[in-house]
Each structure stands twice: as structure tokens, then as C-alpha cells.
Specification:
This protein is mostly helical. The protein is built from 21 helices and no strands.
Amino acid sequence: MSAQSAPPVYPEKIDSAVLKIAGVVVLGAIMSILDITVVNVALPTFQLVFAPNPAHPLAYSTVAWTVTAYTLALATVIPLTGWAADRFGTKRLYALALVLFTAGSALCAGATSIGMLIGFRVVQGLGGGMLMPLGMTIMTRAAGPKRMGRLMAILGVPMLLGPIAGPILGGWLIQKASWHWIFLINVPIGIIAVIYALRALPKDNPHPTEKLDVVGVLLMSPGLALFLYGVSSIPGAGTFLAAKVLVPMAIGVVLMVAFVLHSFRPEHPLLDLRLFRNRDLRAATTTMFLFAAAFFGGLLLVPTYFQLVRGESTLNAGLLVAPQGIGAMMTMPLAGMLSDRVPVGRIVPFGLLLITGGMFALTQITATTPYPQLITVLFIMGLGMGLSMMPLMTSALRTLRSQEVARGSTLLNIVQQIASSVGVAVMSVVLTNNLKSYPLAGPATASWHVPGLAQTLGAPAIAKGLHDAGQAFASTYWVAAILVALTFVPAYFLPRKREESHLLDDAEAAASPVVIH
């Protein structure tokens, strides 16, 4: 692989050429991230529409496989993305990922049984799993080191807004149209994204010189999938100690440990863990793991609280969470601009401080907490999220040499996937157990706001049940708050001086094509 004779010089400002590339990546990210939360909203609908007898809905554990299958497909394909991009080129592979995701969406819309839907969700996941790591690689290469913060802020919009906009969009589509449209809406967007990608993305020259690390694939992909399957089974099992949780998690951990031991032997492993020798990458990745676990886990609680305790519809619950997204949108462009000028170790702690304060405020939540107070807290947390998430990713990728960027983005996506799965599982189990600890809170969760219930149980019983449920949510938020507070420990090691940022200069960044493993 030879160096380019005349490496391009990246302009200081965000120009139209790089915005075109960013548009492609953002379209793909919006589809893949929105899809996860939109389907979560539709699970109760799936229980009814796919039941052989409407009087006997399918078990929740059955329809939950529509989410689990997607997650397992992500886990299988993400580790392979780097090698595949090196073999086929990022442009062609990104277009293929969009085609797979779009085709999977169309097939899901036409599913006539829950088994078909689960199978087609796997097709979706195979495409969706490649979109984010490839998108991060494409954006990093297009931006150059001096514009990376601002470009990552653009990519961060769908990452932060997806979990918030998904329930709103899903609830609206199911109420106004039908469940088919939560998948059909991806089809025209996907077709536009494929055409846009083929036209806007620069042509890259793949270098298929490295052999696929077959042993690494056989260890990492099933290991990660089994681990995440075990984690995703925790809420249904209600405990970490169930066999359906421990067995796959244990096998997954064994396979991943074996992969770690193996990865230092080949010259070009499936995932290059040698990158963690980089101090800044280590600090950013550890901070991101704790942050993602607390963020995605805590995010699950808010709309659930609005629906179960306050009796709001799915659509209204999504709208009430929207201030969090508005806050993130306000600070994210600022954080991106600052990341290009100030070491992230001087930005991220301020964001973490706002989120931690918000989480601790939610530990005081009750069944009657005024909505203006809740909305203010969510808005403040959104401000903190915008100041934290993408600067962390920018810090991690900026410290790497050009040929390491794609491998680093793959590692970051795996870390984020594991963290979010663990966070959601932990919060779900803690909330479930807290609800069970209050006699009236647990049984009434599905029926507090059913008309006529007050006459059946009596107003005092309803009030007591709501009060206990509010206490259960408040207790759960202590876990999220402590988890966010712990992120200050690795965040202390983020670069706080300019010379610690190890920025690549334009010539070095473009000296050779990105080699992806």
C-alpha cells in the first residue's frame, strides 16, 4: 500500500461536499436507530395481530424475539464489517447495507406470521448492523481531523433523537394507519438513501490483500451474539440467575475471552485490540460504556413511567420525552464546534454533570410530580447528553492513525451495543423487582387507568398503588444516577491539554487509504 503523492488538504469550514456525505450517513443512521425503538412500541400490537385466536394473545416473550433477533443479527455482523469493507470498499458495502435493511423492512411489512416477522428482522439487522460503523468510518475520512467534532455532532443527532422520536412515530403510525407502516416507511427512505449513496459517496479503492480471520469470526460473532442473547433474556426471566440467562452469557463470555487471547496472534485480527494501548482511546471507550449503559437504561424508564404511572398513551409519552431531544439538539452543535478547538476532557465533564444532576433529581419522582418539573429535568439531561456523547466518540477516533480509524469505529460500536443492552436489561430487572416489592404496584401496572377500576378496587387502593409504583421508579433511578456518577472516574483521564489530543495533521490523515480489518 503506497502513500498518495499529493494528499488532499481539508478545508477548515464544513463545505457542501462533506455535507453531502454526511447526509447519506445520517439517512442510514436515522433508519437503523429509529427502527429499534419503533418496533418496541409495536410489541403489544404483535401479540394480538399474530395470535391464532384474538382472545388468546401471544406471549410477550414470543413477540420480544422481533427485537432480540434484530439485536443478535447486529452482534453477528458488526465484527465482520471492518474486514468486509476492506474487501469490497466502504461505498459498495454501505450501499449493500442500505439495500439489505430496506429489503428487510419491506419483507417485515408483508409478514403473515410471527415466525416470518422474526426471520425478516434478521435480514434487517444484517444491514442495520453495518450502517453505523461504516457511517462513522466514512464521516471520519471525509471530515479530516480538524472538522471531526462538528461532523460527529451531525451524526449524533439521529443517535440521540432515535430513542425519543421512535415511540412518537411508532405510536402515531400504529394509531393512524397500521403496524405495517412502521416498516413500510423505511422503504422509500431506503431507496432514496441507496441512490444518494451511490451518487454522493466518493469512490474508494478496496485492498483485498488480507485474509479473513476465520478463527476470530468463529469466536467473536457467536460469542457476542450469545452474550447479548443472555443479557436480553434477563428482563423476561426476572433474575440474573436463571439458566436461560447464565448459560448463553457464560458461553458467550468464554468465546469472547478466547477471542481476546487469539486476537494478539494473527497480524490482521478480526478486531485489533492492540488499539487499546492508546490511553485516550481507553479512557474514551470506558467512559462511553458507562455513559451508554446509564443513558439507554435510564431512557427506557421515562416513557414507561409516563404510561404506567401517569396513564399517558404511547404517543403522549413520546411527546413528553421530546424536551430531552430538544436539549440535546441545542448543545450538540456547540459540543461539535468546541471538540474541534478544545480537548474533550474539558467538555464532557460538564455534560456528565448535567446528566448526573438530572438522574439524581429523578430519584425524587412520585406519582404526582408536576409535569413542568419533569420536563425541565429532561431538558437539562438533554443538554448534558448533547455535550457528552459525540465528543466522546470524537476523542476516541481522533487519537487513531488513519489506517486505524475503521477498526476503532467497529470497536466503539461493539462497546456501545454491549453497554446499551446491559443498561436496558439491568434497569428492567431493577424496576420489575422494585414493582414486585410493593404489593399494589406490581399487579396494577396494566390496569390502573382502566375506566371503572376505582369503583372495583376503591380510590384509596388505586392511590396507594400509584404511590408505590412512583416509589419503584424513584428507587430504580438511583441505579442509573450512580452509574452516571461513576463515569467521572474514566472521564478524568480524557485529554485535557491540547498536546494530549494527538490530532492527525491533514497530510498524515490522507497519506494512505484507510485499511479496515
